[in-house]
Design brief:
Radius of gyration: 21 Å
Bound molecules: adenosine-5'-diphosphate
Shape: globular
Number of strands: 14
Number of domains: 2
Strand content: 25-35%
Largest sheet: 6 strands, mixed
CATH superfamily of the largest domain: P-loop containing nucleotide triphosphate hydrolases
CATH class of the largest domain: Alpha Beta
Helix content: 25-40%
């Protein structure tokens, strides 16, 4: 099964064009949707999750018309929204049980087995009796995956799931997603390049509602080979370099800016040729280069 999104557009009533003719083919496995804040990711995710309408375009999940057959999509969808902000004082176990009931698992024995399987899968079994309100950020996100997996979805949407997690929690969350992603279409929407690099074999870059790239992360990185140069400069020189070169990023390294410059011509020896990274791809694309 794949998710086929064609020519999807959406302009909000304030005039913001959040989606501008978006066409994507999303196969099974982990798919990264990478874009800065405000790029249109949540609008796209919410539209596919049947929570809001597009102005035009179409989307199909296998043989389901996503924009018309809302119940059909909802039966196959697991969704972890960006602001999954409800952490009540009830236990993880009771909450999952309640959600499974809402999903139509009426038999209590079956529900118990399902809830235990979910808790084990996301490594929260030993915390099952604790109140959700007491969970750490990483535990909350893992619980979010458990609730999203309850209907055994064929499409799982996770919107900005790693923001706010510490490195250990982020790794645990990556491992969980990688495991889940084997048999399901998983769309991981994120502004964090590392999320995509670690997890996704296919990706798209979205910027101002438009798709700037769709394909493998490696292919995009290879295409930049020979065009990225780096140099450590003094802080005061940054403006001058930005005026003379196509500076795509600058990072502080040991207190000094390390700039990455895009150039199709070789640069002189003050610059070192750099191996392109996915971050370079991202900044080059949203800067209108390559
Ligand atoms: P992302 O998820 O990539 O941060 P969003 O889809 O949330 O992007 O937003 C895309 C653009 O649409 C932004 O400019 C945002 O301010 C605007 N936007 C989002 N939701 C609404 C809304 N309900 N009404 C008006 N503008 C909105």
């Amino acid at each position: 099964m794949e998710l086929l999104i064609q020519n999807l557009s959406k302009t909000y009533s304030n005039g913001v064009k959040a989606l501008d003719d978006v066409t994507l083919t999303i196969p099974q496995g982990m798919y990264g949707l990478l874009g800065q804040n405000g790029a249109g990711k949540s609008t796209l995710m919410r539209t596919i999750a049947t929570l809001q309408e597009a102005d035009s375009g179409s989307a199909r999940l296998g043989d389901i018309d996503v924009l018309r057959d809302l119940d059909g999509v909802r039966r196959r969808l697991g969704y972890l929204p960006q602001d999954f902000g409800v952490y009540p004082r009830i236990s993880a176990q009771d909450m999952l049980d309640h959600l499974a009931l809402l999903k139509g698992v009426a038999n209590s024995g079956e529900r118990k087995r399902l809830v235990e399987a979910m808790l084990n899968k996301v490594n929260l079994f030993e915390h099952r009796k604790k109140a959700l309100a007491s969970f750490s950020g990483g535990m909350r996100q893992r619980f979010g995956i458990a609730q999203a997996l309850i209907g055994n979805p064929s499409l799982l949407i996770v919107d900005e799931p790693t923001a706010g997690l510490d490195p250990g929690e982020r790794n645990r969350f990556y491992n969980l997603l990688a495991e889940v992603g084997e048999n399901v279409i998983v769309i991981l929407s994120t502004h964090i390049v590392e999320d995509v690099l670690e997890l996704c074999s296919k990706m798209a870059i979205i910027h101002k509602g438009r798709v700037l790239y769709e394909g493998g992360p490696d292919t995009a990185v290879d295409a930049l080979e020979g065009r990225i140069y780096s140099r450590k400069i003094a802080k005061a020189e940054l403006t001058q370099y930005e005026a003379s070169y196509r500076v795509i990023s600058n990072k502080m390294v040991a207190g000094r800016p390390l700039i990455h410059v895009y150039s199709e011509e070789p640069l002189d020896a003050e610059f070192a040729p750099a191996r392109p990274s996915l971050e370079d791809v991202f900044f080059a694309k949203i800067g209108g280069l390559n």
